[in-house]
Design a protein that fits this description.
This protein has 239 residues and is an alpha/beta fold. It has helices at 21-34, 55-69, 89-102, 117-133, 173-181, 184-187, 200-216, and strands at 12-16, 39-43, 73-76, 106-110, 151-155, 165-168, 222-227.
Length: 239
């Protein structure tokens, strides 16, 4: 899905280092909120270093997953897979432009520690971009006004941490799994080279994790988030 010129503002902007990262880890959150909110996903890379599937196949898969999740917009920043670098000025500009273009109320980004180097690097890159996006004198080629979201939450990937916020995604969990399975080139063991993620136990681990997070708050399935800036509220009952 390409940028929709009608969309002036997103409620949620979720960044994924590679196509399928948001589906695996916050697919339920996205599907749940897309029922009533404007949800945008921006993938940093096309996942071209993956052992299975081509760029063209993965583009089609990500578009299919976007339709399943009912995303308003999905786009790609075309950063080279395996080379996400938080100190690369051009990469920073691409992420800043996405934040300013969609002016999200909330940003979802990867947790800052992970077994995959791209995931940890993406987290820091997006953090830097969130800060720079609000600077009046940080200029881009595109004429986009400065903007900094008030809230950003980190989603867990391979790292085992207890979240401090769990979203009940039980009602949309089947949709999340349908979106994940749209990436047949990545998760079907019959598709080619044997990998860590295309063995049946991998998706079983994803479901077990989501059941564990759900059990933490007394529901069937949950997705966990971590917030670093303190939450500011005026009324405890808002929680």
């Amino acid at each position: 899905m390409k940028s929709d010129p009608i969309l002036k503002k997103a409620d949620i902007l979720a960044f994924g280092p590679h196509p399928d990262d948001v589906e695996l880890n916050i697919g339920g959150i996205l599907a749940l909120h897309a029922q009533k909110k404007q949800v945008v996903v921006v993938d940093l890379t096309e996942g071209e270093m993956g052992s299975n599937g081509s760029v063209e196949i993965r583009r089609k898969e990500s578009q299919k997953a976007a339709q399943i999740l009912n995303l308003k917009v999905r786009e790609n920043l075309y950063i080279p897979d395996g080379e996400i670098n938080p100190h690369d000025l051009e990469q920073q500009k691409r992420v800043v432009a996405a934040i300013r273009r969609y002016q999200p109320d909330l940003v979802l980004l990867p947790y800052w520690e992970d077994r995959h180097p791209d995931h940890a690097a993406a987290s820091r890159l997006i953090e830097i971009a969130i800060f720079k996006s609000g600077l009046k004198r940080y200029l881009l080629d595109e004429e986009l006004p400065p903007y900094r979201p008030s809230r950003w939450y980190y989603y867990l990937q391979h790292q085992h941490e207890n979240p401090n916020l769990v979203v009940d995604v039980s009602s949309v969990y089947a949709r999340k799994m349908e979106a994940i399975r749209a990436y047949k080139s990545q998760f079907d063991p019959r598709m080619g080279f044997k990998t860590y993620i295309n063995q049946p136990i991998f998706l079983q681990k994803i479901e077990a994790r989501d059941q564990y997070f759900g059990a933490m708050v007394g529901v069937k399935y949950g997705e966990g988030l971590i917030f670093k800036p303190p939450l500011s509220i005026k009324d405890l009952f808002q929680l």
